[in-house]
Amino acid sequence: MTKGILLVAFDFSNAHEDEFHDWYDLEHVPERQRVPGFGLCERWISVANPRQAVATYDLETLAVLSGQPYRAIAGENLSVWSKRVSAMCKRLLRFDGEQTLPGDADSPHGAGGLLVNAMNVAPEHNAEFNEWYDHEHVPALAAVPGVLSARRFKDPNGTHRYLALYHLTAPEVTAGPDWKHAASTPWTERLRPHFRDHLRTLARRYVRGG
To answer: How is 4-61 classified by DSSP, letter by letter?
Structure first.
């Protein structure tokens, strides 16, 4: 069965930090954890900017987001608290997608870091882009020590069509020589100029009160 993902990234610089975390931890995430079909729900904080946050929600299938239990707490049915806090934040990305590689994997438990790569690609390079990602880039990065999971997702209707998620033992994995070697092949460098709307966020696991 093809798995789904819901990923949301916010810049909450204009919100009260304590309230932002209270809202996410005490209402927003617990609401979604109770929806049938939601799996692991996790929060992350950007390494480069601690006022940017990412939330990831594993889905049994993407259809969970069109079901009545989710629609009862989303969209126009968001709580008053949700509407107030989200209005103070800048949404950087919302991605609702199906997992294309490997297709049926869940997020690993206990990761200390997450790398988010969301992008589009110039249409004339789309076929080669997917060939490169599936057959060179993801396998190479998945083999780097400290990489717990490497998955790809596709959202044909969102602002970013493609998403790659890498769960890591720690964010520092991406600074090591093995990662740099795997991420800088000739094929990669040839395709890189054709990326569009690239959003890259390296994040550390959010720990309440930490």
So the answer is: EEEEEEEE-TTS-HHHHHHHIIIIIHHHHHTSTTEEEEEEEEESS-TTEEEEEEEESS
Q: Tokens 């990065």, residue?
A: 141
Cα four-point dihedral sign 35, 38, 43, 48:
negative
206 contacts: CB under 8 Å, gap ≥ 6: 21, 42, 43, 44, 45, 53
pLDDT digits (tens, 9 = 90+) for 87-134: 999 999 999 999 999 999 999 999 999 999 999 999 999 999 999 999
What six digits make up the tokens of 116?
Answer: 């988010």
Using DSSP, state whether 1 is helix, strand or coil: coil
Q: Which residue stretches of the chain are H helix?
A: 17-23, 29-33, 68-71, 80-87, 126-132, 138-142, 177-182, 186-191
pLDDT tens sequence across 59-70: 999 999 999 999
Contact by Cβ (8 Å): 108, 167: yes
| The pLDDT value given to residue 34 | 98
Could you give the CA distance from residue 8 to residue 34 in angstroms, rounded to a whole number? 18
Q: Which two tokens stand for residue 90?
A: 């800048």
Two tokens at 76?
Answer: 């126009």
Instruction: Count Cβ atoms below 10 Å from residue 30 Cβ, excluding itself.
Output: 11
Rounded to an integer, what distance in angstroms lies between the CA atom of residue 190 and that of residue 209? Answer: 44
